[in-house]
Amino acid sequence: MASSYSYLNFFMLFSLLSVSLACDHSELPLKSASLGNWLLTEGWMNSTMFDGIPNNDLLDGTIVQLKSTKLQKYLSAEHGGGSIVVANRTKADIWESFRLWRVNETFYNFRVFNKLFVGLENQGQGNGIVAVSKAPSSPETFEIIRKDGDPNRVRLRSPNGLFLQAKSETEVTADYEGSSWDDEDPSVFEMAISGGLQGEYQITNGYGPKAAQFMRNHWKTYITEDDFKFMSENGLTAVRIPVGWWIAHDPNPPKPFVGGSLEALDNAFKWAYKYRMKVIVDLHAPRVSQNGYAHSATRDGIQEWGESDIPETVSVIDFLASRYGTHPSLAAIELMNEPLAPGMTVENLIKYYQAGYDAVRKYTNTAFVILSNRLGGDQKELLSFADKLDRAVIDVHYYNLFSDWYKTLSVDQNIQFVYNQRAANLSAVTTPKGPLSFVGEWSADWEVKNATKRDLQRFAEAQMQVYKHATFGWAYWSYKCDDDSKHWNLRWMIENGYMKL
Ligand SMILES: *[C@@H]1O[C@H](CO)[C@@H](O)[C@H](O)[C@H]1NC(C)=O
Ligand SMILES: *[C@@H]1O[C@H](CO)[C@@H](O)[C@H](O)[C@H]1NC(C)=O
Ligand SMILES: *[C@@H]1O[C@H](CO)[C@@H](O)[C@H](O)[C@H]1NC(C)=O
Ligand SMILES: *[C@@H]1O[C@H](CO)[C@@H](O)[C@H](O)[C@H]1NC(C)=O
Ligand SMILES: *[C@@H]1O[C@H](CO)[C@@H](O)[C@H](O)[C@H]1NC(C)=O
């Protein structure tokens, strides 16, 4: 017995030594901050970043509805697309909603419900308006002309130089030559704007030729070496860094994205090393959106990721692993943030996670590989798959937000919810031999209004007490945030005595 124990210990020691380069189990659980809105823009975290964009209420993905002032009816893509555009609806719903693709500050494409684009019929040969094109080109590009002093009163100049008009309820054509702003003018529309996105696509396409300089300045100033110093001095041991697919194409990513985020990520690794911190690289934004949120860098909010996007998404992971796989500060690569798209069946997700895992393992046996659960899915659905992988981690995100139900909770009910339900939920994905568990996102923001400082301290403390049982650790969302409440801003929370790690 004794000799077999020492034999075992020898191997355990050996395997610990061999991993000391990367993340060692003794460094777990990690206490991390997400560097949100740094290498991947999220406008809600600092909307003034969009102030310098002309017509910044008409960014990519903004949804508009157009009501003819003459007919008092909305434009509608019959059947949601694939047919003619009419002007006979009294109410605006999904067939009457158009998602903008911005060509430049005044020229736009209009995407309809079933993803086709509005344009001139017969590839631009006719004057009728249809919604049949799969990819927008010149016949699908319209100039939005806004009235001075009344910017939501608009006329649309079509590619043939003439104005789009609602000639009758069933006849929408591009052959009007007049130019008044009168209600009776069939080319005048009231434009309602509902919804909008402020992500990396919107900011880079919005700034256009000025985007490269704007983004590089943002990357240089938003997070600096001083932030790593601050984090390490205040008990944080790692950073989680959301990145987008274009980083793999640096320095010349496809437009509108701009190069330079890779150098910023290199700097983060350098600073992490200097301050003895670890880095979690998190692919938040594959090229085809996995969840439609601005933070997936989607152009228009449609969730289009599907099985055919696996190879391209894996190639981004391969790039990240090849660059950082042997870096002593790499803790983990997260294969994808918050999957949600309809094409994201658990089968497709597992297929992708297996391929992404294998790509990471080509370069490192020691980095952890993080698997994010599907939003709204069963949190345990990846456990049996992840069981078979070495150094896999299941990522769960916990917010007392995003459902009206949380608005009914008092201070103490929020805190009890964390100690009871959240603790149970985390325990269910924290198994003794399976993958490690990671609360990859949480924050001290909540629905309670006018809470006292003490209330907020207790809420944050309760979460840290529970989430410390996650075997891989946790990551606060976010390190920095310019919203009014400051609850999302970990640096502010620490500096002002709301949180102590
Ligand atoms: C928000 O963005 C503006 C414009 O880019 C910038 O001047 C400001 O410093 C940013 N705020 C923070 C907290 O980083
Ligand atoms: C609108 O016009 C189209 C084309 O004529 C027709 O099929 C449809 O039923 C009309 N809808 C309404 C609500 O009048
Ligand atoms: C905007 O795009 C349109 C359509 O491609 C083009 O004709 C126009 O010159 C562009 N305007 C600017 C300012 O680039
Ligand atoms: C969390 O735990 C509660 C109570 O145990 C359960 O009803 C709920 O479904 C769990 N939520 C998730 C996302 O697993
Ligand atoms: C919070 O405080 C503001 C200002 O003191 C007050 O107007 C508001 O009604 C309060 N809200 C709640 C939910 O108590």
Automatic annotation (TrEMBL):
**InterPro entries (UniProt xref):** Actin-crosslinking (IPR008999), DUF7910 (IPR057232), Fascin (IPR010431), GH (IPR017853), Glyco_hydro_5 (IPR001547)
* Taxonomy, superkingdom: Eukaryota
MF (Gene Ontology): actin filament binding; hydrolase activity, hydrolyzing O-glycosyl compounds
Coiled coil start-end:
none
GO aspect biological process, one term = polysaccharide catabolic process
Q: Which GO terms describe its cellular component?
A: actin cytoskeleton; cytoplasm
Under the heading SUPFAM superfamilies, the entry gives: (Trans)glycosidases, Actin-crosslinking proteins
Homology family: Belongs to the glycosyl hydrolase 5 (cellulase A) family.
Q: What is this protein called?
A: Mannan endo-1,4-beta-mannosidase
